[in-house]
Design goal:
The protein has 6 helices and 4 strands, in the order H-E-E-H-H-E-E-H-H-H. By secondary structure, it is α+β, with helices and mostly antiparallel strands. The protein has a 4-stranded mixed β-sheet. Helix 4 (116-127) packs across helix 5.
Length: 202
């Protein structure tokens, strides 16, 4: 598990390493075993007075695409350094106006064994058209728990952090651990949902 202190160090590294003019504001840096996701704010495009919602949406999409293409080399350079340092893939996203866009990012496979009643839940979701497959249905269930049990999950993470801090004070422990000292993450499959292409950039 990644502790708050480790996450803060990682966010600090990105805050110091990113070019000052890359984002208006660095909004979020999140990390798990496979991936670091960096989210920043980009300026909203100007539209004519009385522009329709469709026009505003298209302008935002154009601004995000312009940012993505213009900053690709800078982001790739930062990502390579971070991947060497933290042994995780780096993914990027932006907020523009009220919308958040994620660029190509890691889709990590998670293996599990389910008993028949649990498999039936997934099969019901597939049969009802809620999900395309059992794996898609399982991801849907995880998102549902995340949406409705966010407070409980936050409390659970805080409890795990307390356990980690107690263990870190034990004999023979290294109290100054950081994300780059853990085991190398399992190889994650790239997300191919964007234009059918594998992860071509960080």
């Amino acid at each position: 598990m990644i502790t708050s202190e480790q996450s803060e160090k990682l966010r600090g590294w990105f805050a110091g390493r990113l070019p000052d003019d890359l984002f208006e504001t660095l909004l979020d840096v999140t990390v798990d075993r496979e991936e670091i996701t960096v989210i920043g704010r980009v300026p909203e495009p100007r539209t004519t007075a009385g522009a329709s919602d469709a026009e505003k949406r298209a302008a935002v999409e154009g601004r995000v695409q312009e940012f993505r293409e213009r900053t690709r080399d800078e982001r790739v350079a930062v990502a390579r350094e971070a991947e060497d340092r933290y042994r995780r893939k780096v993914s990027w996203g932006v907020e523009c106006g009220s919308e958040r866009f994620l660029f190509t990012h890691v889709a990590a496979p998670v293996m599990t064994r389910l008993r028949q009643p649990e498999r039936q839940v997934l099969d019901t979701l597939v049969a009802a058209g809620v999900a395309r497959s059992r794996s898609d249905a399982l991801a849907w269930c995880v998102r549902l728990v995340q949406r409705h049990e966010d407070d409980w999950l936050s409390e659970l993470r805080d409890s795990l952090e307390a356990v980690h801090r107690v263990r870190a004070r034990g004999p023979g422990s290294d109290s100054d651990s950081s994300p780059d000292t853990g085991d190398a993450p399992e190889k994650a499959a790239p997300d191919t949902s964007e234009n059918g292409a594998a992860q071509e950039e960080s």
